[in-house]
Amino acid sequence: MVTKSPEGPEPMTFHEKSAWMNLGAIVLVGGAYFLHVPWTLRPSFDPLLWKGFVYCLVAFLALEVIGHLVLALRSPREARAPRDERERLINLKAIRLAAYVYVVGSFAAVFTLHHGANGLAIGNLVLLAFVVAQVVNYTARIVYHRRGV
Length: 149
Fold this sequence. Notes:
Elements: H1 14-36, H2 47-74, H3 76-80, H4 85-111, H5 119-147
Helix pairs in contact: 1-2, 1-5, 4-5
């Protein structure tokens, strides 16, 4: 168990800052995408949907690259340091939680086939399952860092 210092909370590590940045990027871009997706299970393809997906993908990649560059430039020594045993354990625990969420979400997406969903709708639902799983992943990492796992 980690003891709290009398000076206050411990400063955030590079990997915790990275988790916050990843969480913000996935919520921002994923939220923007899914707010604009037409939620229909009927067969209909809108070319603007493909454009929106590409724009969101490019925006997400730009946020990730710029965010990690800024974090690495602010603390280059910490960015190059290998992950210690605690950080590897945090990653494993967080990924395990996210995997369960992704599997349940993917099965739920496939279940919509019985209700007349087309391939595009199932693809969007699997993508939603992935986004939710990543939100769980990064949220768990942040919580585990704060709790001192």
